[in-house]
Automatic annotation (TrEMBL):
Annotated function: Associates with the EF-Tu.GDP complex and induces the exchange of GDP to GTP. It remains bound to the aminoacyl-tRNA.EF-Tu.GTP complex up to the GTP hydrolysis stage on the ribosome.
Cellular-component GO terms for this entry: mitochondrion
Molecular function GO labels: translation elongation factor activity
Pfam families, sorted: EF_TS (PF00889)
Name this protein carries in UniProt: Elongation factor Ts, mitochondrial
The species this protein was found in: Lactuca sativa (Garden lettuce)
């Protein structure tokens, strides 16, 4: 009898030691339970705890396998493009319910996007949309060029440009005008992308993409250009990852007096001039549009530089006038050397084109935009400078 009691005692002691060792090694289950949660109740309710832990172990073995979890993580990652850490956290919190986790990520995303909205976004893309008489260009910014290469970001930019083109009044007079961003952000938009399904407002679409990208995404500015006369609307995009997107945009309208003129030659020259605008960075169309204050200020600077040479006054005056002509050639479109043929300027090019088509041709308006111009980069001391 004593021998059997002793053996029972030893067996019980060994079982308790095994149990204690198991308690020190947590077993993770699908819902985050582990045998360590039973420690506090082990002394007071040993039978309940042992049976409860056994149930937890049994349930864990019957739960979805790690491969199933990885499949869900992959699916949610493909749907949302959210960081893997956030994807896994949302799935765990939602008991691995894919749809519920996607909804949870969207909720979190809006919060994350608002926290990132103060960060500098000086990278991004210009998106361009146009028809025969009008063009619209918008600048969508992000923090890094890596995000600017993302297809979701690019899809959003193109959709915003198309919306800006259709939203502006069709009866708008000829000229270039800024897009009203506040009114644009309130409009409904339906982006044709599998990860951005459903109609929403522009503002919410931007927040959703910001959450997916993990960066500040901002619609900075936009312009539309219209023409009412007979002619062509020419555009050019530099550093173009796909049609309609680029980092520098040039838009130019050429107007022809005679409405019966064939526009083939005009279109050819218009495309070259739009590229010229991107390359040469003109500020105004004609010399008359340069303000007198700017001209006089430039004259004073050039005169001071010429006087330091010690030459006679007559020579100084000639030097100043020559350098002033050079200044006009740099900033005035009509005075610039044509980039395709630098033996002529743009004014001569249009004169030759008018003779070719048999009717006067003139530039109606032009516009040049570049991503991030007027903004401080992320490594600058200031967080954000005023847009130009």
């Amino acid at each position: 009898m004593q021998f059997s009691e002793m053996m029972f005692s030893r067996g019980a002691k060994q079982s308790i030691e095994i149990l204690c060792r198991r308690l020190n090694s947590p077993i993770h289950s699908r819902y985050g339970y582990s045998t360590q949660t039973c420690r506090e109740n082990l002394v007071s309710k040993p039978n309940y705890v042992i049976s409860h832990c056994a149930l937890v172990r049994k349930y864990s073995s019957e739960a979805s396998s790690p491969s199933d979890h990885m499949s869900l993580i992959k699916k949610l990652r493909e749907r949302t493009s959210a960081p893997i850490k956030e994807v896994k956290s949302a799935l765990i919190d939602c008991n691995w319910d894919l749809d519920a986790a996607q909804k949870e990520l969207r909720k979190r995303g809006i919060v994350l996007a608002s926290k990132k909205s103060s960060r500098t976004a000086a990278e991004g893309l210009l998106a361009l949309a146009q028809n025969d008489t009008k063009a619209a260009v918008i600048e969508l910014n992000c923090e890094t060029d890596f995000v600017a290469r993302n297809e979701i970001f690019q899809c959003l930019a193109l959709s915003l440009a198309k919306l800006a083109l259709s939203a502006e009044s069709s009866g708008q007079v000829s000229g270039a005008f800024p897009v009203g961003l506040e009114s644009l952000e309130d409009l409904k938009i339906n982006i044709n992308h599998p990860k951005l399904n459903g109609e929403t407002t522009v503002q919410n679409a931007i927040k959703e993409v910001a959450a997916m990208m993990g960066e500040n995404v901002k619609l900075r500015r936009g312009f539309t250009m219209s023409m009412s006369a007979h002619g062509v609307m020419s555009t050019y995009l530099h550093t173009c990852p796909q049609p309609g997107l680029g980092r520098i945009a040039g838009i130019l309208s050429l107007e022809v007096e005679d409405e019966k003129v064939c526009l083939d030659g005009v279109q050819r020259v218009g495309a070259e001039l739009a590229m010229h605008v991107v390359a040469s960075k003109p500020l105004v169309l004609t010399k008359e549009l340069v303000s007198n204050d700017v001209v006089e200020n430039e004259r004073e600077i050039l005169k001071s530089q010429a006087e330091s040479s010690g030459r006679p006054q007559a020579a100084i005056e000639k030097m100043v006038e020559g350098r002033l002509r050079k200044y006009f050639e740099e900033v005035v479109l009509m005075e610039q050397k044509f980039i395709v043929n630098d033996t002529i300027n743009v004014k001569t090019l249009l004169s030759d084109l008018s003779k070719e088509v048999g009717s006067p041709v003139k530039i109606g308006n032009f516009l040049r935009m570049e991503v991030g111009e007027g903004l401080q980069r992320a490594d600058a001391p200031e967080a954000l400078a005023q847009a130009a």
